[in-house]
Design goal:
The chain is mostly helical. About 70% of the residues lie in helices and about 0% in strands.
């Protein structure tokens, strides 16, 4: 789970570009790729807010 969290941290702010690349290289649409990234965030508790900031990660660091 830590490796997935680390990967999601690296993707932060680049989700749309990554989804586009996934779409180019696989049979998955950009929308499906983005949905998969969002699902992974939900599973790990790494949720983004509308402004792109990640309060969950910040709160975890403070504890």
């Amino acid at each position: 789970m830590n490796k997935l969290r680390r990967m999601l941290g690296l993707l932060e702010g680049r989700e749309n570009k990554v989804a586009k690349q996934i779409s180019k290289r696989t049979g998955v649409s950009e929308r499906q790729a983005r949905r998969g990234i969002d699902k992974a965030r939900e599973l790990t508790g790494e949720t983004e807010n509308e402004d792109g900031s990640d309060h969950t990660r910040r709160e975890r660091r403070q504890n």
